[in-house]
Design brief:
The protein is α/β, with parallel strands linked by helices. The protein has 14 helices and twelve strands.
C-alpha cells in the first residue's frame, strides 16, 4: 500500500526564537505597512524594490538577507537600525536562500544536445566560482562569510522541508555503476521505503546516492518501470572508466532521458539530496526532488546523519562510507540529536571481512541502547523491516 508521509506546510512567515522570519512578498508588505512598532523580523531573498512601507518608521533589529533594495531603501533601512546583507553581482549564488534548491534550479542551462551540456549549468558555474575563489579557505573574508551564510540558510530550509516527515538515509559508494546489481538493489529498497511513507535522503551524488533518489522517483510508477529506467541508464560510452560513471559525457543526459520518459511534475513522494560543492566534479543526483547543497562538507556530513531520524542504511563504500558509519555511531552513542535510530549494514561479508567495521561497531556499542538497533544482513527485506519496525518513542 502506498502511504505518503504526512507533510507540514511551511508558512511564509513564522517566528523562530522570537524573530519573525518572512519569505513572501505579500507578508513583507503586510508587515512593513502594519501597525507600529514593527516586531523584529528577518526578510529573506525578496525583491522589495517596488514594495511600499520600507521608507517609513523604524527597522531597528531587523535583518534583510539577500533582498533586492533600491539605494534609497537601503540607506533608510540602515539609518533606522536594520542590518543588510546584499549579494555581490560577481557572485553567482545567493548568500541567503529561503528554501532548498530544485534540480531545475541547479541544472538550469543544461543542454541535452551537447556532450558538455552540464558545463553550462548553474551548478557548474557555482563550482567554478568556488574553485576560483579558494576551495576550502577563500582568501576574501566576504566570500567566506557568504558561503557560511548560504550554508546556514540551507540548514534552516532543510529542517523546514523535513518537518513532519520520517526521514531515512542510504549511504554508499559514489563509484557504484548504474548497471551493477547493487545499484538496482538500492533503488528497490528506496522505492519500497518511499511507498511506505518515508522521506529518503542521501549524500546527493552519483552511485548508491543517485540510486536512492531514482527509487524514490520511480515509486510513482509501476514496478516494471524501474527495470525499464535502469535499462535507459545502464549503457556507458566506449572506453568509459570503471567506477567513474559520473565522469561520462552523457551521465546527466541519461538521467534526464529517464526524467523525460517518466515525468513527475507534482511529486507525491519527495526525496532530498544533500551534496557539496567540495565534490563539485560529481554532478548532483537529478532524481532528488529537493537538493540541500552545501559549501562546507563538514556541516553537510554531520547534518545529513543528524536529520536521518528513522535510520541509516549503509551499502558498500570506501573511506567516506566508513567515516559515515562511525559518525552515525557517535551520534547514537552520545545521543547527540536525541534517541538513537537504526544502523543497517547491508552485505555481511563486506562489513565483517573486507572492511571489518562490524566487530568494532558492536564492541563500541557495548550495552548501550543503540546496540539493539545495529543490524548486519544480506537480506534486503530484513533491511527494510529494520526501518519499518523502529519506533522512535521507545
Amino acid at each position: 500500500m502506498i502511504r505518503p508521509a504526512p507533510r507540514v506546510a511551511r508558512r511564509a512567515d513564522h517566528y523562530r526564537f522570537g524573530v519573525l522570519e518572512i519569505d513572501s512578498l505579500d507578508s513583507a508588505i503586510a508587515w512593513a505597512t502594519g501597525p507600529s512598532p514593527r516586531p523584529p523580523a528577518a526578510l529573506r531573498a525578496l525583491d522589495l524594490r517596488d514594495a511600499p512601507g520600507f521608507e517609513d518608521g523604524s527597522f531597528d533589529g531587523c535583518l534583510f538577507l539577500s533582498c533586492l533594495l533600491t539605494p534609497a531603501q537601503a540607506g533608510f533601512l540602515t539609518t533606522t537600525g536594520a542590518a543588510i546583507v546584499r549579494d555581490r553581482p560577481e557572485r553567482p549564488y545567493t548568500a541567503h536562500r529561503a528554501r532548498l534548491y530544485t534540480p531545475d534550479e541547479l541544472f538550469a542551462g543544461f543542454d541535452p544536445g551537447r556532450p558538455d551540456g552540464y558545463d553550462a549549468t548553474f551548478d557548474a558555474l557555482v563550482y567554478r566560482h568556488w574553485e576560483r575563489t579558494g576551495r576550502q579557505h577563500p582568501p576574501a573574508i566576504d566570500e567566506s562569510l557568504a558561503r557560511r551564510l548560504h550554508d546556514h540558510s540551507i540548514t534552516e530550509a532543510l529542517h523546514d522541508a523535513l518537518a513532519g516527515t520520517r526521514s531515512v538515509a542510504i549511504m554508499g559508494g559514489h563509484g557504484l555503476e548504474r548497471s551493477a546489481p547493487g545499484y538496482a538493489a538500492v533503488a528497490r529498497i528506496a522505492r519500497t521505503l518511499t511507498r511506505d511513507g518515508y522521506t529518503m535522503l542521501s549524500g546527493g551524488g552519483p552511485g548508491a546516492m543517485e540510486a536512492t533518489h531514482l527509487g524514490a522517483w520511480m515509486a510513482h510508477f509501476a514496478d516494471d518501470d524501474l527495470e525499464a529506467a535502469l535499462a535507459v541508464l545502464a549503457p556507458r560510452p566506449f572506453g568509459a572508466r570503471p567506477g567513474q560513471e559520473y565522469a561520462d559525457d552523457d551521465w546527466l543526459h541519461r538521467a534526464f532521458a529517464v526524467r523525460e520518459r517518466w515525468p513527475v511534475p507534482d511529486p507525491t513522494f519527495h526525496s532530498i539530496g544533500i551534496p557539496t560543492w567540495m565534490y563539485g566534479h560529481e554532478p548532483p543526483a537529478a532524481f532528488a526532488t529537493k537538493i540541500a547543497k552545501y559549501f562546507a562538507n563538514s556541516v553537510r556530513e554531520e547534518g545529513l546523519l543528524a536529520v536521518a531520524t528513522h535510520g541509516v542504511l549503509f551499502t558498500r563504500g570506501s573511506a567516506g562510507t566508513v567515516q559515515e558509519i562511525f559518525q552515525e555511531a557517535t551520534q547514537n552513542h552520545y545521543e547527540s540529536y536525541g534517541a538513537p535510530s537504526p544502523m543497517v549494514l547491508i552485505d555481511v561479508a563486506y562489513w565483517s571481512e573486507v572492511l571489518p567495521v562490524w566487530p568494532l561497531l558492536t564492541s563500541l556499542a557495548g550495552e548501550r541502547p543503540y546496540r539493539d538497533l545495529l543490524v548486519l544482513t544480506d537480506d534486503h527485506d530484513a533491511a527494510v523491516d529494520a526501518i519499518r519496525t523502529f519506533e522512535p518513542h521507545r
